[in-house]
Write a structure and sequence with these properties.
The protein is built from five helices and 15 strands. By secondary structure, it is an alpha+beta fold.
């Protein structure tokens, strides 16, 4: 049964801005730490230390049994990669860092894909297209639009470059819980399980996390034996970007963007 999402008050959105600023600060610190020879466990330790310094908690650690403070997904890993001491980054890798925090009773969530040293042009293009897909999705977050407008913007841009959008994982509402209604797909499939969510109109007070996961190859994914790490079925590279966005009368407020911008530029790339 489809449940309508909880709309946040202005005060609640301000609290969500605070926790998302924590997320943004820690993600920036993690990006600076990414280098050849660094392990994904090293990144997890940095996140845990920064959380303590900022008085927040990980939204991921312990969630449905997840064992780490963040997700680190390298190359063909799509999402939910578990940090490990023996997973050492190498020149030319790309790593998706997905991170969430809890502060003041609210959750913030964001992700970015980062280059490890010098990367191949095709890897850079994948990252650029995926990030742009997110920005175009954000630009559709106007009162009166529907979730399907967001989904279509993401899908059209990714597929226009010959890439595929992962269908096994989607974005979501966010607030006091990390995953709230509605689902926010990165593709339009009006006949499928997300049909009601896609038709939902965006209203002031709705807060959603948009997170394109884009593959160079086909959209199919497999889950490894750790029951968490999702990889591309064909071994192709994957990129992942995410922001938490509040719908306001003035336009989308990207809560997890540190510059505080309230509108995503939608001019063609």
């Amino acid at each position: 049964m489809f449940e309508r999402p909880h709309l946040k008050s202005k005060d609640e959105i301000r609290l969500m801005r605070e926790v998302n600023l924590v997320v943004a600060e820690i993600l920036d610190a993690l990006e600076l730490a990414v280098a050849p020879g660094v392990s994904t466990m090293d990144l997890d330790r940095i996140a845990a230390r920064k959380l303590k310094e900022l008085g927040a908690k990980s939204a991921f650690l312990g969630y449905r049994g997840y064992p780490a403070s963040l997700c680190t997904s390298v190359n063909e890993e799509v999402v939910h990669g578990i940090p490990r001491a023996d997973k050492v980054l190498r020149e030319g890798d790309i790593i998706g860092i997905d991170f969430g925090a809890v502060l003041g009773g609210f959750v913030g969530d964001s992700a970015k894909t980062v280059a490890v040293g010098k990367i191949a042009p095709e890897a850079q293009k994948l990252m650029d297209v995926t990030k742009r897909s997110l920005e175009l999705g954000i630009a559709q977050c106007r009162v009166g639009n529907r979730i399907q407008d967001v989904a279509k913007a993401v899908q059209d841009h990714a597929e226009a470059h010959g890439y595929s959008v992962v269908r096994d994982f989607v974005g979501h509402g966010i607030g006091r819980r990390m995953h709230e209604n509605p689902y926010v797909p990165n593709f339009v499939d009006a006949s499928g399980q997300f049909s009601k969510a896609l038709r939902l109109r965006l209203q002031p007070g709705l807060v959603i996390a948009i997170e394109p996961m884009v593959n160079i190859g086909k959209p199919d994914v497999l889950t490894l034996e750790d029951d968490w790490t999702a990889v591309t079925a064909d071994g192709s590279l994957s990129a992942h970007f995410e922001h938490s966005i509040a719908i306001t009368e003035e336009g989308p407020w990207v809560l997890s963007r540190r510059d505080g911008s309230t509108w995503a530029e939608a001019a063609p790339a």
